[in-house]
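Homework help board

Subject: predicted structure for assignment chain

Our instructor gave us this sequence and asked us to write out the predicted structure in token form, then describe one feature. I got the tokens but I'm not sure how to describe them. Can anyone check?
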Amino acid sequence: MIMSQDKMSMPSGMGGLVRYFDEYKSKIEFKPGHIVILTIIIIILMILLNVLN
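My token output:
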């Protein structure tokens, strides 16, 4: 018994899946370090606002 005859073949178009990240590239890009710094600034700002309130 040969198993290769029982396989289903998908169309070459990736089975209807669309890869959006290949088609769209954002004009705004952030480095991971910038996101970490922005998060730390927001956390400090929230702590200050809670202390002053």
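Reply (TA_rk): Your tokens look well-formed. For the description, you could write something like this. The radius of gyration is 25 Å. That's the kind of observation they're looking for.
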